[in-house]
Amino acid sequence: MDAADPVALGRWWCEALRWVVVNDAPGEFEIRPSPDRLPGLIFEPVREAKAGKNRLHLDFRPEDQDAEVARLLALGARRVDIGQGEQSWVVLADIEGNEFCVLSSRPG
Description:
Elements: E1 2-3, H1 6-17, E2 20-25, E3 28-32, E4 41-45, E5 58-60, H2 65-75, E6 78-79, E7 90-93, E8 99-102
Parallel strand pairs: 1-4, 5-8
Antiparallel strand pairs: 2-3, 3-4, 6-7, 7-8
Protein name: Glyoxalase-like domain-containing protein
Domain Glyoxalase-like: 1-103
Pfam families: Glyoxalase_6 (PF18029)
């Protein structure tokens, strides 16, 4: 994932996903579900700012949507309007403006 600050963005996603850091180098910050489990995410520095819609969009599907939205907002996410209107999901952005959604739980 391109980042203005790979360490800060990588640490944010590490907390958001509840993963672990496997490489904390500023030029290639990597997180994974556990140290020996793939796939992971690598955050690399870029000079240019994010422009337009994300090409990769992550969706969270928690047990409790309201609690998860509150947790992510407490980590520094923010609500964003991308023209979604009234929906069952909540659109948030990470600390560098990358959008993702928090879906409602699946019916039993």
